[in-house]
Amino acid sequence: MINFALFIQKTTLIYSFLLTKCFFLYKLHTLAPDLLEMIHEKELVLGAEAIAIGAIDEGISGVYAYPGTPSTEITEYIQHSEEAIAKNIRSSWSTNEKTAYEAALGMSYAGKRSLVCMKHVGLNVAADAFINSAVTGVNGGLVLLVADDPSMHSSQNEQDTRFYGKFTYLPLLEPSNQQEAYDCVRFAYQLSEQVKLPVILRITTRLSHSRSVIVRRTAIAANALSPETDRNKWILLPANARKRYNALLAMQDKLTELSEKSVFNFETKGTGETGIIAFGLAYNYVMEVNTTRNLQLPVLKISQYPLPEKLIKDFCSRYNKVLIAEEGFPIYEELLRGFFGNDKFAGRLDGTLPRTGELSPDKLASAILGKTIKTYTVPDIVANRPPELCQGCSHRDLYEALNKAMEDYDSKHVFSDIGCYTLGALPPYNAINTCVDMGASVTMAKGASDAGIHPAVAVIGDSTFTHSGMTGLLDAVNDKTQVTIIISDNYTTAMTGGQDSAGTNKLALICEGLGVEKSQIHTIVPLKKNLEDNIAVLKSAFEYKGVSVVLACRECIQTARRKKSKN
Length: 567
Ligand SMILES: Cc1ncc(C[n+]2csc(CCOP(=O)(O)OP(=O)(O)O)c2C)c(N)n1
Ligand code: SF4
What we know:
- This protein is an alpha/beta fold.
- It has helices spanning 4-31, 47-57, 72-80, 82-86, 97-109, 120-136, 162-168, 178-195, 205-208, 231-234, 238-250, 252-261, 282-292, 309-317, 331-337, 361-369, 394-406, 440-451, 462-479, 507-513, 531-543, 557-566; strands at residues 39-46, 60-65, 113-119, 142-148, 172-173, 199-204, 211-217, 266-268, 274-279, 299-302, 304-305, 321-325, 345-346, 414-415, 457-461, 483-489, 521-524, 547-553.
- Bound molecules: thiamine diphosphate and iron/sulfur cluster.
């Protein structure tokens, strides 16, 4: 039997989607007719894939990235794309986000277009290079794609990358759907080369991981090699840096003017005394509420920053009340309210919308209608299934040995890190005490040892170790700290889906190169049958009066299974 209500709801949604699309195409036609040339090919893709396809079509010569949910699929798409391979687009994984950003900047210096991708916390790692690149500017177009994770589905925090946009005075684009993601990335390269600055593209989990149809446009060729010739621009000695920084500030009026005219910022007319300013993906949610609830609320959509001040002032002047829908922090709500608050605005700061977590059509409908709306409920049959280490995982056997080896000590402090092995925090192991940021296990164990904790033990994965653990190990070596670093080496970056790990087959040499005594680099194979031997190795490492390293080596069974099924 046809569920009539559902049918109506679905057709209304499709209708609203088409209306939005028509309006967008109309805007493109009037404001940027060149963007409309030769529209062709439709594809059903993830938001992440839409970005990858847009970058391929816009002539990138390389993508640089370190995996991180929800950004990983962009680089993976390019790695497996026949078009990208035929175009010789460079795409293997970088060791961390900073090395990725710097390599992308080098490609831009050479005059070619580059894409650099990371999750939001990755930008903290790349921040030094990124922030300074706002001062150098770029040569070939450089687009920084950052995927934020509001609600922290798979992250340690829910920071909002738009802060980095404001912080660096760089232009930022925030698409509201998959088609716009494709269009934004193509536009971002043109903008980057027009204003000679890196352009930030911010997406969030829902957009990255949901599918929609996109329409591709004709691809363009990659830039020819044309290295930068202006050395003063790129050598950030104070005398140059001051000039460059002033040039960046002088560019702000131009960037604001571009936002005022942007095809990605527009108003959807409506009726009533309340208007909505919807940023990025929130626009999609607001339009869904408008259509499913038969409302005609006026909406100002913002997807290009810096803020288009005139558009916003004009919109706000016409409504008594303005709801601000931002996916992420209430950055612009705070700004629009001003220092002393303002009765005109509602949003996350006054509790009209939840202060944390991602938005949804239901949350917006509740805020707009003033009552709780819950379109879908989770059926009772759906049970909560907490994450756990796979059966047969090497980390399991490591933690079993580690817990046994720690039994003789009153003080049990294991500093851990980020990866599948973080699940050792949960029962039955309860094996770790900390997990803060990538690489922190090594340096926190070192600091704890300096403070007098014994044994001071770090557990870190192979990919995390090369990402950010190596420098901490050098600190420990230089200080002759009594610390045991256990590298749980499963030859892959398992947590994000099994990408290559930069240190595979090199970890013992890296540790030796960093100055760890060869006799203190132990290798164990975490298997049940080796339990007693492994406990003995760990105990002896704890008692060494300096830096000891234990490499616990066994392949991730999921990666092994995938490899086997491919052969
Ligand atoms: C700065 C930063 N970049 C990326 C991530 C995403 N991330 C979480 S764990 C992880 C890698 C884990 O690999 P590994 O250390 O080898 O451990 P495994 O999952 O294989 O056990 C990544 C890339 C993150 N949390 N923080
Ligand atoms: S994916 Fe691999 S590393 Fe992660 S829990 Fe499963 S077996 Fe262990």
